[in-house]
# Entry
Amino acid sequence: MISVIIPTYNRLAFLKEAVASVMKQDYFHRRPGEWELLVVDDGSTDGTAEWVEALEGPIRSIRRAHAGVSAARNLGLEKARGGLIAFLDSDDLWETDKISAQVNLLETIPGAAVCYTEETWIRRGVRVNPRKKHQKHSGWIFDKVLPLCLLSLSSAIFRREVFDAVGVFDVDLPACEDYDLGIRIAHRYPFYLIDKPLIVKRGGHPDQLSHRYWGMDRFRIKALCRALTLDLSPEQDRLVREEIMKKCRILITGFRNRGKSAEAEKYSALLRDVTAARAGERLPE
# Structure
């Protein structure tokens, strides 16, 4: 069974289109008894719950008090019955052959556990081209996921064992939770890319987390510091520490420009600690 999880919060207009794109999946039409859709309503007040409960088909409505997208996704994982897990953000859309292409890849490549696809980007209703730094990769891509988040959850499908191995979403991260998860997964599993845009990723609206918080590198640094607790190779450890140092420098400049000296000093201290650790690693025994 494939479990599709859509977390949502006061996005009913977007949600209706997202659900419709799930219902149009050709794979689900061919195998009607082998999928379920879980809509996790994170405390919406715009009529989301009533609309979802009126839907027909293998759709489950899960309601909870507002606690953020990570908590909503984790609840969906807890309730999901499928061996394959696919997430869809409520403002994104799937092309009709998205699931069938991914299932075909997972069935073709023994051991494949993570598959994601290329994307079509829409910003404020206008199509835009991803920059070179957003290029997706196949294989062991731990080094590629450190500078920025390459794991677009709406484009991915996972075997459930992935979450059993690396854990779930970090509810203590108000943003960049997908970046954190992507690092943990890339440390344990190769990524398989379908080089075709099979989702429409819509952005630019004011309720996106990237618009709510300044200095997103704050959250990425937390994820990188957590990554240092993984069983890293010496090269992976070096790459993580270098990325922490790079992002600290960006934040220090930003906080100083905003006159926030205490915050700047916090990341200056972290930068000194990481730099000292790196220097210590190079000392002869």
Notes: Residues 58 and 262 are 52 Å apart (CA to CA). The radius of gyration is 20 Å. Residues 232-282 form one domain.
